[in-house]
Amino acid sequence: DIRQENIYYSWYDKEIKTSLQEFITSWSGVVLLAEPDENSIEPNYKNNYKKELYLRFQQYSLVIGIVVVMMLAYVSNQLFYNLGITCSLLINMLGIYIGYLLVLKQLHIQSNYADKICSLFKKSDCNNILESKAANFFGIIGWSELGLGYFISNTLLLLFFPHLITYMAMINICTLPYTIWSVWYQKMKAVQWCPLCLIVQVILWNIFIINLIVGVIYFPVFSFPDMLWVGCLYFIPFLVINLFIPELAKGNRIEQITQEINSLKTNENVFKTFLKQQTHYEVDKTTSKILFGDPDSDILVTILTNPHCNPCAWMHTRAEKLLEDINQSICIQYIFSSFNKELESGAHFMIAAYFTYPPKKVKTIYKEWFEGGKNNPKEFFQRYLHVQTEEGKKEYLRHEEWKERVQLRTTPTVLVNGYQLPDNYKIEDLRYFTDLNVNIK
Hints:
Blueprint lengths: L1 E2 L2 E6 L2 E6 H7 L18 H32 L6 H24 L5 H7 L7 H5 L5 E2 L3 E2 H18 L4 H26 L4 H20 L9 H42 L2 H9 L14 E3 L6 E6 L4 H16 L5 E6 L7 H13 L2 H13 L5 H7 L6 H17 L6 E4 L2 E2 L21
Parallel strand pairs: 7-8
Antiparallel strand pairs: 1-2, 2-3, 4-5, 6-8, 7-9, 9-10
Helix pairs in contact: 3-6, 3-8, 6-9, 7-8, 11-13, 12-13, 12-15
């Protein structure tokens, strides 16, 4: 928005106000202006909304379940009588959250809270610290993974094995030298601060102070069962996280690669290049008069289809959905082929129906046919007027002559302005090319 001498704009979820001169100086020259119209809606909104609700249900159920288990352990072990354990429990839960944010940063997963914390200082960049060689223990295990596992282990020990708190206190003392090294490295080597890392160091010292005040810092009476329990408590959470992180990173990377590939695929010049490399067949809107969508569109999508073919039925559903999504803005042409004298009645019926009924009724008939009517054609034919007109016969002959001329046999085959649709594209991808220049030969 432009008001008098000020410019208002959004940048990475931040609303920014600046003077006109400052804006001109810093502006790259590129701006995105998005304005809604009567057709503006997220693609597949209803399905996406259902998936989002289910995902939220899963997440909330998991969080509620964890909280309930923690509350049951807290109450059943009567930990509320021990202020020291309660304080230690709270500080370790904060450590879990900070460790979680650090792992997100390490995996380059967007988190607004992590970004806000990491921008607390003028000379702060969590990414630079987390991507340095010092961010890994022995160059293999990330400190963020170790920290998250450590705080989870502390929390489990406090909730379910509070009598082992002395072991936790001794382990905590072993972590304190790391805090000194971490601060020294950020100040002297990296010359940058990682606020999230600093919060972890503060949490570790707070745990030490609480343990000191409560009086649990002393050498315990070591016993093999207790040591085995402590070993499992500190090893298993870390092992689970260490095994899970690579899979999460892999999934995140696959998502990024998919986005990059989709960005490349939706480039019109890239699509044209692939399209020109495909076999070209002479076809136009006179080849078949079975047309859906916009008959005046420069984009002609020809589908060679068999009325009795299951993949062709699925292709019809996809083509119908494509037209619905793009507001009928391209032209889809059907050429029918049965490749079997006994099944020619299906092609004759589809052509006759197109010339007999109004467009809306034709769409209904085609949909019902492909959804199940083709499995019992005689019964389906009896439901609708099936008249072989002279126009219908000529149309069928045009389809047959074209097939003989181009020698296409595979159904369904999709052509775009005569070019076979490249293997690395689906018919749904044509939504991105509704304004494609027809002159692509």
